[in-house]
Prior knowledge:
Layout: E1 2-8, H1 9-17, E2 41-54, E3 60-72, E4 74-84, E5 87-98, E6 101-114, E7 120-134, H2 137-143, E8 145-157, H3 162-172
Parallel strand pairs: 1-2
Antiparallel strand pairs: 2-3, 3-4, 4-5, 5-6, 6-7, 7-8
Amino acid sequence: NLALNHLDVQSLLSLLLGPQQTPKRGDLWSDAKFLAGAAQLPDLALAITAEKLALSPAQTAGNASFNLDLSGDRLALSQAKMAYNGGTLGGNLTLRRAAANVSLSADAVFSGLDLSSLLLSGKADGQLSFAATGQTAAQLAGSAGGSGSLTISAGVWRGQGTPALATVVAATER
Protein backbone atom coordinates (compact mmCIF):
# COMPACT_ATOMS: atom_id res chain seq x y z
CA ASN A 1 0.00 0.00 0.00
CA LEU A 2 1.15 3.52 -0.82
CA ALA A 3 -0.53 6.67 0.57
CA LEU A 4 0.33 10.00 -1.06
CA ASN A 5 -0.69 13.63 -0.63
CA HIS A 6 -0.45 14.35 -4.37
CA LEU A 7 0.04 12.24 -7.49
CA ASP A 8 0.10 13.22 -11.17
CA VAL A 9 -1.44 10.65 -13.53
CA GLN A 10 0.92 11.82 -16.29
CA SER A 11 3.87 10.69 -14.16
CA LEU A 12 2.44 7.17 -14.08
CA LEU A 13 1.68 7.14 -17.81
CA SER A 14 5.21 8.35 -18.62
CA LEU A 15 6.55 5.07 -17.22
CA LEU A 16 5.24 3.42 -20.39
CA LEU A 17 4.88 6.36 -22.82
CA GLY A 18 7.94 8.43 -21.98
CA PRO A 19 7.68 12.15 -21.17
CA GLN A 20 4.52 13.97 -22.19
CA GLN A 21 4.80 15.56 -25.64
CA THR A 22 3.57 19.14 -25.99
CA PRO A 23 1.00 19.67 -28.78
CA LYS A 24 1.70 22.21 -31.51
CA ARG A 25 0.08 25.59 -30.99
CA GLY A 26 -3.63 25.34 -31.65
CA ASP A 27 -3.71 21.53 -31.41
CA LEU A 28 -5.33 19.64 -28.57
CA TRP A 29 -3.18 16.50 -28.93
CA SER A 30 0.48 16.06 -29.80
CA ASP A 31 1.37 14.39 -33.11
CA ALA A 32 4.91 13.63 -31.88
CA LYS A 33 5.63 9.92 -31.45
CA PHE A 34 5.68 8.63 -27.90
CA LEU A 35 9.23 8.56 -26.61
CA ALA A 36 10.68 5.53 -24.95
CA GLY A 37 9.41 4.90 -21.45
CA ALA A 38 10.93 2.24 -19.27
CA ALA A 39 12.49 -0.43 -21.46
CA GLN A 40 10.70 -3.12 -19.48
CA LEU A 41 8.47 -2.28 -16.53
CA PRO A 42 9.11 -4.24 -13.36
CA ASP A 43 6.42 -6.55 -12.06
CA LEU A 44 4.73 -4.45 -9.40
CA ALA A 45 1.29 -4.31 -7.78
CA LEU A 46 0.36 -1.45 -5.45
CA ALA A 47 -2.83 -0.22 -3.81
CA ILE A 48 -2.53 3.58 -3.98
CA THR A 49 -4.44 6.35 -2.23
CA ALA A 50 -3.90 10.03 -2.96
CA GLU A 51 -5.51 13.05 -1.35
CA LYS A 52 -5.13 14.90 -4.68
CA LEU A 53 -4.83 13.24 -8.10
CA ALA A 54 -3.88 15.49 -11.05
CA LEU A 55 -5.80 14.09 -14.03
CA SER A 56 -4.45 16.87 -16.28
CA PRO A 57 -2.81 20.25 -15.69
CA ALA A 58 -6.28 21.77 -15.24
CA GLN A 59 -8.25 18.92 -13.62
CA THR A 60 -7.72 17.49 -10.13
CA ALA A 61 -9.65 14.79 -8.30
CA GLY A 62 -9.66 14.18 -4.55
CA ASN A 63 -9.66 11.21 -2.21
CA ALA A 64 -8.48 8.88 -4.97
CA SER A 65 -7.83 5.18 -4.61
CA PHE A 66 -6.83 2.62 -7.22
CA ASN A 67 -4.71 -0.44 -7.86
CA LEU A 68 -1.60 0.05 -9.99
CA ASP A 69 -0.30 -3.03 -11.80
CA LEU A 70 2.91 -2.88 -13.84
CA SER A 71 4.23 -5.79 -15.85
CA GLY A 72 6.65 -5.67 -18.78
CA ASP A 73 4.82 -3.72 -21.49
CA ARG A 74 1.59 -3.17 -19.51
CA LEU A 75 0.37 -0.52 -17.07
CA ALA A 76 -3.08 -0.91 -15.50
CA LEU A 77 -5.05 1.28 -13.13
CA SER A 78 -8.00 -0.70 -11.77
CA GLN A 79 -10.82 -0.23 -9.31
CA ALA A 80 -10.26 3.53 -9.37
CA LYS A 81 -12.56 5.67 -7.21
CA MET A 82 -12.30 9.40 -6.62
CA ALA A 83 -14.20 12.58 -5.85
CA TYR A 84 -14.37 14.76 -8.95
CA ASN A 85 -16.18 17.96 -9.86
CA GLY A 86 -18.79 17.65 -7.11
CA GLY A 87 -19.48 13.96 -7.78
CA THR A 88 -17.71 10.64 -8.07
CA LEU A 89 -15.67 9.04 -10.83
CA GLY A 90 -14.44 5.47 -11.06
CA GLY A 91 -13.15 2.95 -13.54
CA ASN A 92 -10.24 1.09 -15.09
CA LEU A 93 -7.52 1.95 -17.62
CA THR A 94 -5.00 -0.33 -19.32
CA LEU A 95 -2.08 0.73 -21.53
CA ARG A 96 0.03 -1.74 -23.51
CA ARG A 97 3.08 -0.95 -25.56
CA ALA A 98 4.54 -3.01 -28.42
CA ALA A 99 7.58 -1.13 -29.74
CA ALA A 100 6.23 2.20 -31.04
CA ASN A 101 2.56 1.14 -30.91
CA VAL A 102 0.38 1.86 -27.89
CA SER A 103 -3.05 0.43 -27.16
CA LEU A 104 -5.36 1.86 -24.55
CA SER A 105 -8.62 0.54 -23.15
CA ALA A 106 -10.71 2.18 -20.47
CA ASP A 107 -14.08 2.18 -18.81
CA ALA A 108 -15.49 4.78 -16.45
CA VAL A 109 -18.59 5.35 -14.37
CA PHE A 110 -19.47 8.80 -13.05
CA SER A 111 -22.20 10.17 -10.83
CA GLY A 112 -23.29 13.62 -9.72
CA LEU A 113 -20.71 15.56 -11.75
CA ASP A 114 -21.34 19.30 -11.62
CA LEU A 115 -21.75 20.73 -15.11
CA SER A 116 -21.57 24.42 -14.13
CA SER A 117 -18.16 24.87 -15.77
CA LEU A 118 -19.81 24.15 -19.14
CA LEU A 119 -22.57 26.04 -20.96
CA LEU A 120 -24.97 23.84 -19.04
CA SER A 121 -25.93 23.64 -15.41
CA GLY A 122 -27.04 20.47 -13.69
CA LYS A 123 -25.59 17.12 -12.72
CA ALA A 124 -24.33 14.29 -14.94
CA ASP A 125 -24.38 10.54 -14.41
CA GLY A 126 -23.15 7.98 -16.89
CA GLN A 127 -20.68 5.42 -18.08
CA LEU A 128 -18.34 4.96 -21.00
CA SER A 129 -16.04 2.33 -22.43
CA PHE A 130 -13.51 2.89 -25.20
CA ALA A 131 -10.35 1.62 -26.82
CA ALA A 132 -7.69 3.28 -28.98
CA THR A 133 -4.38 2.55 -30.68
CA GLY A 134 -1.61 4.71 -32.07
CA GLN A 135 1.96 5.95 -31.93
CA THR A 136 1.04 9.49 -30.82
CA ALA A 137 -1.50 11.11 -28.52
CA ALA A 138 -3.27 12.51 -31.61
CA GLN A 139 -3.53 9.01 -33.12
CA LEU A 140 -4.90 7.61 -29.85
CA ALA A 141 -7.54 10.37 -29.71
CA GLY A 142 -8.39 9.94 -33.40
CA SER A 143 -8.75 6.18 -33.21
CA ALA A 144 -10.79 6.07 -29.99
CA GLY A 145 -14.05 4.21 -30.32
CA GLY A 146 -16.52 2.89 -27.83
CA SER A 147 -19.90 3.42 -26.25
CA GLY A 148 -21.48 5.10 -23.29
CA SER A 149 -24.50 6.72 -21.77
CA LEU A 150 -25.15 10.10 -20.20
CA THR A 151 -28.01 11.34 -18.04
CA ILE A 152 -28.28 15.03 -17.18
CA SER A 153 -30.56 16.04 -14.33
CA ALA A 154 -31.77 19.56 -13.53
CA GLY A 155 -30.02 20.75 -16.69
CA VAL A 156 -30.33 24.30 -17.96
CA TRP A 157 -28.67 25.34 -21.25
CA ARG A 158 -26.91 28.71 -20.93
CA GLY A 159 -25.69 28.89 -24.51
CA GLN A 160 -26.64 31.06 -27.46
CA GLY A 161 -29.81 29.15 -28.18
CA THR A 162 -30.81 25.74 -29.38
CA PRO A 163 -29.02 25.73 -32.79
CA ALA A 164 -25.68 25.12 -31.06
CA LEU A 165 -27.18 22.30 -28.99
CA ALA A 166 -28.71 20.74 -32.11
CA THR A 167 -25.26 20.78 -33.77
CA VAL A 168 -23.71 19.01 -30.79
CA VAL A 169 -26.45 16.38 -30.66
CA ALA A 170 -26.22 15.78 -34.42
CA ALA A 171 -22.44 15.30 -34.16
CA THR A 172 -22.84 12.66 -31.44
CA GLU A 173 -25.31 10.68 -33.54
CA ARG A 174 -22.83 10.03 -36.35
